[in-house]
């Protein structure tokens, strides 16, 4: 089956739809994060781009920057992967707030910290997928999340290898939460199969 969407020459209306999906998803995830840490969370307008896999690492600080990556596989009406990435410093900020620790505590993550990080990623990713499902009226289920703390290049190589055979682009939603000294940079990377892009567009009448 030939896909109706060409990610190398995407139509403006299709791109606008993808950007709107990114905006709504990020807003929903921010609300979930606010409820999780029981504090008001401000979010700057997310930056949504369709990028090649090789460009993603530079956005998060370079291939050798340390990040926390939480990866889930998408199933149901939509197939693909979604990854939520945090710069390691941002991950410390979130865990410190959630666990009631000193905001400037940057010691190595404990087992409890890692469990909290996994929960943060799970809830934020779930909120994002929920908004996508509600918007498109499509059924989307996800696998148990896999978490890794490693260099950005190594973490991003997993979806890149998996999806390079169907395309070399991913939808990146870059969000900033919080204020100044406690600002958290979060990155949602949505990688549907080309057939799933078609399903999303069809569900929205395009």
From TrEMBL:
<feature type="domain" description="CheC-like protein">
    <location>
        <begin position="112"/>
        <end position="145"/>
    </location>
</feature>
<dbReference type="GO" id="GO:0006935">
    <property type="term" value="P:chemotaxis"/>
</dbReference>
<protein>
    <submittedName>
        <fullName>Chemotaxis protein CheC</fullName>
    </submittedName>
</protein>
<dbReference type="InterPro" id="IPR028976">
    <property type="entry name" value="CheC-like_sf"/>
</dbReference>
<keyword id="KW-0145">Chemotaxis</keyword>
<dbReference type="InterPro" id="IPR050992">
    <property type="entry name" value="CheZ_family_phosphatases"/>
</dbReference>
<keyword id="KW-0378">Hydrolase</keyword>
<dbReference type="GO" id="GO:0016787">
    <property type="term" value="F:hydrolase activity"/>
</dbReference>
<feature type="domain" description="CheC-like protein">
    <location>
        <begin position="13"/>
        <end position="49"/>
    </location>
</feature>
<dbReference type="Pfam" id="PF04509">
    <property type="entry name" value="CheC"/>
</dbReference>
<dbReference type="InterPro" id="IPR007597">
    <property type="entry name" value="CheC"/>
</dbReference>
